[in-house]
Design goal:
alpha+beta, Neuraminidase, 4-stranded antiparallel β-sheet
């Protein structure tokens, strides 16, 4: 230091070794270096600046400590950008390409359906027109036949009249009394023409073209609805239930919800968290799943005694008793049917059965290659989508299995493209008014996918802990049952 300070040919600035390269010169005092930062003015200051009255009421930080703090902040930002934010944007950009292709695919599907309907209507119209033309041809043939018949009769009579005239002329020229005496007059016979016919000719009265009726015949095209998912869903209500392990939640209304969990009690709560009603299962077993019917009743699955039961008022009625199968989850459909997942452990089989009342209407178990649609164990929660697809969360398969109303496999969702293998285990499942499918998984998050299996986004940044059972009310608010905390959370995820 002495060597440099004694050299007066240059301006030397001596700083502690750790401040080398980051200590700027003071803009106010040319011979000083800045050792502190004024966090009020956000400018570096030197000791002379600190001693002046200009910064006497300002807050000052050691410039090295401030520099290291800012470096740590930048390092944290860099890590967040590289590890979390940028991958999400990459995935979103990839989904944009998929969505754009999906728009074309769906538009083509709609156009094809319209063309098919148009062809059907054109075929029907052509058939009707051709039938009317055939009727015209038949009527023409009948009319011509009648004319021909009249023509034959007239020509025949003309021939007879001609002959009668010749006979009369011959008799008038003869003096044969015998021939004249044999004459018989036919004048009165010929006086009346052959029977005349009257024809009412067909007419065509075109109907005024009614565009509204034509539209009704063609069908309806629903409007495009664009809704935006919230980047950070909001928790509107947080209810602590009396059951510490919740399996399922089902909305009775916008303000009341049923819950079931790891005990034998079914509980009805309002959104203020008040217990309105509790019902013990008929057998004393714990229920596996619950569903509210269209009429407001509550059905629950009791795998212990292999039954499906209906709670109505104060009564519990056994609707279905299974043989060899154990019910797992339930769903009340838009048509009033009941969908039930059930498993036969002896044969390691799982199927979805549709009931109307206690009558089995449909069984869904195999795909087109006679392979099982669902694994033989684990939880199998299900939901009917707005397009009548049947969506099953198969945790053992690590997939959401979606089939059509006819039971034909449409797709399997195993997580977004970036999902590592064996890291997706779906549990609860529900659908909303946009025909989107929501399913909870084992990573404290909820997946939102569209009706064709396209991943839209996660719900994962709003403090969910072990989300399990899901349901959506009529306003598309999401209710989440947390299996580990016994809480039900109401979320808003649409703008």
């Amino acid at each position: 230091m002495g060597e440099h300070l004694s050299d007066e040919s240059k301006d030397h600035y001596i700083v502690p070794f750790e401040l080398r390269g980051i200590t700027p010169k003071c803009t106010e005092h040319a011979t000083e270096v800045c050792t502190q930062l004024c966090t009020t003015c956000y400018i570096p200051v030197c000791p002379l600046c600190v001693d002046s009255s200009q910064h006497e009421e300002d807050e000052l930080e050691d410039i090295l400590e401030w520099f290291e703090y800012k470096r740590e902040c930048m390092q944290e930002d860099l890590q967040n950008l590289e590890k979390s934010i940028y991958p999400r944007y990459q995935e979103a950009a990839t989904n944009i390409l998929v969505q754009r292709a999906d728009v074309n695919k769906r538009s083509q599907k709609l156009t094809t359906a319209l063309d098919k309907q148009g062809e059907a209507l054109h075929t029907e119209i052509d058939t009707i027109i051709q039938g009317m033309k055939s009727d015209i041809d038949d009527m023409d043939a009948k009319h011509k036949a009648a004319i021909n018949q009249q023509e034959v009769a007239i020509n025949h009579t003309i021939t007879e009249i001609t002959q009668a005239i010749l006979d009369l002329k011959r008799l008038l020229d003869t003096s044969d009394v015998c021939l004249v005496s044999e004459y018989t007059s036919r004048t009165e016979e010929f006086r009346n023409l052959p029977a005349q016919f009257q024809v009412t000719l067909p007419t065509f009265t075109p109907q005024e073209i009614n565009r509204e009726q034509i539209h009704q015949q063609i069908g309806s095209l629903s409007k495009l609805a664009i809704t935006f998912l919230l980047d950070e869903p909001r928790i509107l209500t947080d209810i602590q239930t009396e059951c510490r392990e919740l399996f399922s939640v089902s909305c009775l209304s916008d303000s009341e919800l049923w819950t079931c969990g790891n005990d034998k009690i079914l509980r009805l709560y309002n959104l203020q968290g008040e217990l309105l009603r509790s019902v013990q299962t008929k057998s004393g077993n714990k229920p596996e799943d619950i569903a509210v019917t269209r009429s407001g009743g509550l059905v629950y699955a009791d795998p212990g005694d292999r039954s499906i039961n209906l709670v109505s008022g104060t009564q519990i009625q056994t609707l279905i008793t299974l043989r060899g199968w154990r019910p797992s989850s339930l769903c009340s459909t838009a048509s009033g049917d009941l969908l039930v997942t059930m498993t036969r452990y002896v044969w390691k089989q799982t199927k979805v059965v549709r009931y109307f009342g206690s009558t089995e209407k449909q069984s869904i178990q195999w795909d087109d290659q006679d392979k099982p649609l669902y694994t033989s164990g684990g939880y199998k929660y299900l939901s009917e989508n707005r397009n009548l697809d049947i969506c099953v969360a198969d945790c053992w398969a690590g997939a959401v299995v979606v089939v059509s109303a006819a039971g034909k496999l449409r797709f399997r969702y195993t997580g977004p493209p970036s999902t590592p293998e064996e890291s997706f285990s779906p549990y609860g499942i529900t659908t909303d008014s946009q025909a989107n499918i929501l399913t909870s998984d084992n990573n404290d998050r909820i997946h939102i996918i569209d009706q064709d299996g396209l991943f839209l986004r996660y719900i994962h940044n709003c403090g969910l802990q072990n989300p399990w059972g899901l349901c959506v009310d009529y306003r598309d608010n999401l209710f989440v049952a947390e299996i580990g905390t016994g809480r039900v959370k109401k979320l808003q995820y649409y703008k």
